[in-house]
Specification:
single chain, 113 residues, mainly alpha, 6 helices
């Protein structure tokens, strides 16, 4: 999260505070440990952690998750720039001969590592 104004700094600090509360409660309830700093800066990770918190069924974790969703504006769909690249790439066909050549060096006892 790039912070450019004092309002954004306050929102970033508040989101980090809620993330640390979520971290503590989630560790107590489910034994899961999360990265609060990474959560604030990466919306994809934040959504996954929020889903994890909601799955526990704990009321306090639900409140933290809702608050964090509002602070980080996670209702908007996430755009992953790699999705388009992955869809366009075609996997090259690997022949059995290439597989055999890749494995032969592992069978030879004196092969260099």
């Amino acid at each position: 999260m790039r912070v450019e104004s004092s309002d954004q700094l306050i929102a970033h600090n508040e989101a980090f505070s809620v993330a640390t509360l979520l971290y503590t409660r989630l560790r107590r309830v489910s034994g899961r440990v999360i990265d609060a700093l990474y959560l604030v800066d990466h919306p994809g990770y934040a959504k996954d952690v929020i889903e994890l918190a909601l799955a526990t069924g704990d009321a306090e974790l639900s409140r933290y998750a809702e608050r964090l969703t509002r602070l980080l504006d996670l209702n908007a769909p996430l755009l992953n720039p790699l999705d388009e690249v992955i869809d366009e790439q075609v996997e090259p066909e690997i022949t059995e001969e290439e597989i055999y050549r890749a494995q032969v060096s592992h069978h030879y006892i004196g092969a260099l590592r």
